[in-house]
Design a protein that fits this description.
The protein is mainly beta. Helices cover 11% and strands 48% of the residues.
Length: 224
């Protein structure tokens, strides 16, 4: 940026220099993408399960996370992209880290997601960017969504996934609890406790393979 030079009293020289330095510093530092956690997920659909992408970034910005304007998730080879902002992203706190992203990113017609390299791009309010690449190569063809049945006080989980979780939802569909579980018959009260058990209206199961970065959701089931 060019500045016009004009005559001014000598005693105004130093404050003007200080202002110019302050203006130069206002741009701040660009954001940093500390880590990316991404997985391919199967979701129940009609007539068959469909693929979705879950992608979250651990982001740091010296001006605070309110300075983050958007996150783009881009697959350059296919031209596929999603833009996330504070109106549609999810923030989650894990220890000292804050992760920002979204689950359930899917193709319009529920087609299979492209494999290969993706980019996660973070943009702050000053337009500064940071990005990190990740790969999505999981094969979902032989994967099966967990089987779940629910009655008034017990659940039965049929799953071959290495890790399994129960997702509990209230009357308006908000997620109220996540509990790790093993396949078989389990009591809802023993899993969630009496306070939560009264709030729970529907349950779903989630299976995950951390080595393949591949997961799957069951249908949500109502308590009978």
């Amino acid at each position: 940026m060019a500045f016009a030079v004009s005559r001014r009293p000598r005693h105004l020289g130093m404050p003007l220099v200080a202002c110019m330095l302050l203006l130069c510093a206002c741009g701040g530092e660009p954001p940093e993408v500390m880590a990316v956690e991404a997985r391919l997920e199967l979701r129940p659909g009609d007539p068959s399960a469909y693929e979705s992408l879950s992608a979250f970034a651990s982001v740091r910005d010296l001006n605070g996370l309110d300075d983050i304007e958007s996150i783009m998730i881009v697959h350059d080879e296919s031209g596929l992209s999603w833009r996330l902002t504070d109106s549609n992203w999810t923030k989650r706190k894990e220890g000292a880290e804050t992760w920002i992203g979204s689950a359930g990113l899917a193709m319009v017609q529920h087609d299979s997601l492209p494999r290969g390299e993706y980019r996660l791009v973070v943009v702050n309010l000053a337009g500064q960017k940071a990005e990190r690449a990740f790969r999505m190569d999981a094969d979902s063809k032989k994967a099966r969504i967990p089987g779940l049945s629910v009655d008034s006080d017990t659940t039965t989980l049929d799953s071959a996934w290495p890790e399994n979780y129960f997702l509990a939802y209230d009357a308006v569909g908000s997620l109220v609890s996540v509990k790790e579980a093993k396949p078989g018959k389990l009591g809802i009260l023993a899993l969630f406790g009496s306070a939560l058990e009264k709030r729970i209206q529907t349950l779903a199961a989630y299976g995950y393979d951390p080595h393949r970065h591949l997961g799957a959701y069951s249908w949500r089931m109502k308590k009978k």
